Amino acid sequence: MKLDFEHQQSAHCESGVTSSLLRKSSGGKITEPLAFGIGAGLFFCYIPLIKINNGPAIAFRTFPGLIFKRTCNALGISVVRQKFGSKEKAEAVLIQCLEQGQPAGCQVGVYYLSYFPREYRFHFNAHNLIVFGKEEDQYLISDPVMETVTQLSSYELERVRFAKGALAPKGQIYYPGNVAPISDEQIRKAIVKGIKNNVNQMLRIPGNFAGVKGIAYTGKKIKKWRDKLGLQKAGSYLAQLVRMQEEIGTGGGGFRYIYAAFLQEAFAYTNKEELLDISKLFTEAGDLWRTAAVQAAGIYKGRLGSQADFDQMGDYLIQVAEMEKNAFLALKKIKW
Amino acid sequence: MKKEQVPQDLGALGKITKEVVYATDSSGKYTTELSSGWEVKKEALDIAWQDVEARIANAKQKVLNGEASPILFFMEYRLMDPGILSDYTGYWRWQIKRHLKTDVFKQLSEKKLQKYADAFNTNIEDLKTMTVHEA
User: Fold this and answer.
1) Are residues B24 and B66 in the same domain?
2) Contact A278/A325 with Cβ under 8 angstroms?
3) Are residues A232 and A106 in the same domain?
4) Which residue from A139, A52, A228 is spatially nearest to B84, judged by alpha carbons?
5) Which of A33, A247, A260 sits opposite B41 (nearest CB)?
6) Count of the separate structural domains present in chain A
7) pTM of the prediction?
């Protein structure tokens, strides 16, 4: 059994899955950047009290699952989402889904994801892929970050669907419920909603740890890492920051480039000239994130290491925070 | 980032798949470009693995010194922490902490050892002897 489904490679797994699952009803109009932007995907968060892989817990994107949910909600599409206690039930529902001609989005863990290179297999459970068929014991997989389609045996798929640890997927599958054509007007409204959502998320979220304030907060913390953690551990922390920011799935520059691409596409639907200029601000922010990554690499590779180097690193983030604050304020001011 | 600035430094991932990066073309319009990797983040990943390898070596030594049970070694080898291991085995964290003690580990039943072996994708014999078969 193989559904009529075209694999599309994308930068970020959840936005890519969202875009692919909505391809038929939107006639391909919901591109990856649109899904990311309508889903208000851009974020920043650093929680000092939590450790992930013995390093800092840093995120550049919104909470897993929200992009698909928000994008569908904003477009007036219902979401079907199911979690399972039983592995047998999880597979039965998946097969049922395929038999009804519905490609299924699945949340999976990457630790046992066999087609990923070993170097990339950490206990990260918020990866997303689409199952679009089954031939004998092999499931046909469209993993948005891969160039081509892949396969997983039923055992391999079960293992990643039931990965354990933080954000355990619990066999979760999801897909859009009502499949009606999506109009340009629906997309326009959804874009406005997504931008407003993202403005709130970055400017108005309470506390120091998240949003644009969180970026500046992290910058200030980094300046103290050298004394507090020692050079080696501080280097490992910075390496983790860079991985969260630049690794596969981000589209580069901590998702800032995808967001800049979204704003350009948003202009086509809304005709608000400001969006083009604001898009440039996000490109600049992404560029500065990457400049900071180069500085961080200097530290974790031992080419740099003085307090002045850490101060510079922290200052980059404080500067990024200011840039992104201005960009979101400009978005907030748009009269829709 | 401009399209022509998209780095093409071959890393672990680039050997298996190229990744999509968003970049601007000469007119400033966003487009996607495939990248085979970036030295800066390849080095970040190397650092992460050096840290992992150091923790594994440290755990192995502790087990050899009789300061911890082989569960510690496999926990590090599988990149787990007591929280993840607890989720995979169904044991509470305090139980896992107990099982990390050598004398408690020696008295564990086959059934309990099997739970750990399953969580680590190994068998009881290899678990006890810290034997790994994968590269």
Assistant:
1) no
2) no
3) no
4) A52
5) A247
6) 2
7) 0.95
